Amino acid sequence: MEDEAKHEILEAISLLADQVQDLSNDLGGVKSDVSSLKSDVSSLKSDVSSLKSDVTMIKATMVTKSYLDDKLGDLKGDMVSMLRKEDRQVGRLVEVLTDKKVLTMAESKDVRSYRPFP
User: Fold this and answer.
1) What single-letter DSSP state applies at residue 62?
2) Is the same domain home to 74 and 56?
3) Cα(22)–Cα(28) distance, rounded to whole angstroms?
4) N or C: which end of the chain has fewer CB within 10 A?
5) pLDDT of 11-21, one tens digit each?
6) Given a cut of 90, is residue 70 above it in pLDDT?
7) CA nearest 97: which of 109, 83, 85?
């Protein structure tokens, strides 16, 4: 009976050793997977850092609606000013041509009716 008990104990130890060996092999695979995950995470960190700097640059240089509205308003003001000046010039030219009898009064009135501003 002692031999049988010893034999069962040896079998249990052998089975336990096999299971520990299997776990050790599995642990090696897990270590490899963790190492691979570490390199993937490192790559992702680098990509996110690059994206952050790109977004920061875009935010710094992008045009906002209020800025665009202001610039368009300024442009409209400049255009109106230039058109008014040209309208005065055309009006003066029509006066000179009418005074020199190059244009008739009817032609003068017709040209003046095309004013961009009332």
Assistant:
1) P
2) no
3) 10
4) C
5) 888 888 778 78
6) yes
7) 109
The span from the CA of 117 to the CA of 36, in Å, is: 73
Number of domains, the chain: 2
Q: Are residues 56 and 69 in the same domain?
A: no
CB of 96 closer than 8 Å to CB of 88 = no
Alpha-carbon distances of 34 from 27, 37, 43, 81, 106, rounded to whole Å: 10, 5, 14, 70, 93
The whole domain housing 43 covers 1-61
| Same domain flag for 54 and 1 | yes
Q: DSSP letter at 118?
A: -
One domain, residues 114 and 86 = yes
Question: How far, in Å, CA of 34 to CA of 51, rounded?
Answer: 25
DSSP 64: P
pTM above 0.85, yes or no: no
Around Cβ 103, how many Cβ atoms within 10 Å? Answer: 18
15 and 5 co-located in one domain? yes
